[in-house]
Amino acid sequence: MRHEVLPGRMTDASEGEIVVFLIGMRINRLRAPRAWLPVFRAMPRMLRELSRDPSAGMLGYRLLFGGPRIFCVVQYWESQERLHAYASSPEREHRPAWAAFHRRARRANGAVGIWHESYRVPPGHYESVYVDMPAFGLGAARGTAPVGQGGARAADRLRSRAG
Fold first, then answer.
1. Which position among 57, 69, 136, 157 has the lowest Cβ density within 10 Å, counted as fewest Cβ atoms?
2. How far apart are CA 34 and CA 37, in angstroms?
3. Alpha carbon of 154 to those of 115, 124, 125, 158, 160: distances in Å?
4. Using the 8-state DSSP alphabet, how is residue 68 labeled?
């Protein structure tokens, strides 16, 4: 992951469709770590697995925290099909972790909550700008380019990708 500041105005260098996948957990009862700690520990294993295997289709991710109880991962994927293939594969980390969560959840009485959302975004329906920032978000996942190449305004960047 690059951390150096890219001077000036940049945009992501994406072409084509992108899938944005948000996944997270909420600790509902702090005093029930047996319920939430395994869930918390499962995500880093999956992210390591996906980061080591670019053919799986995850382009990049960013960890976000929403206070002391909410943890979120924003992921960028090549396609919805790759995301679903990873999630359903019995040879990958996700499916066994999902089954284990459901077994524990029945006994946990709501001590931990999980959620996810996925968005399939066609070309011409996303744009980005990063000003004096390291590569971030979609720019970190797909690379960056100077804003002048994609349009000075958000509407210009959207129009240029619409084809």
1. 69
2. 6
3. 30, 11, 11, 6, 10
4. S
Amino acid in the structure at residue 31: R
Report the run of H or E that residue 86 belongs to, with start and end: helix 80-88
- Kind of pairing between the strands at 112-121 and 70-77: unpaired
What does the angle CA 20 – CA 79 – CA 42 come to, to the nearest 5 degrees?
60
The answer to whether the CB of 75 falls within 8 A of the CB of 58 is yes
SS3 10: strand
Strands (E) across 13-134 are located at 18-27, 58-65, 70-77, 112-121, 130-133
**Type of residue numbered 2:** R
Confidence of residue 152 (pLDDT cuts 50, 70, 90): confident
Per residue in 79-133, pLDDT (tens digit) is 999 999 999 999 999 999 888 888 887 788 899 999 999 999 998 899 999 999 9
Compute the distance between CA of residue 75 and CA of residue 102 in angstroms, rounded to an integer: 23
Tokens of 64: 């976000």
Tokens of 123: 């070309």
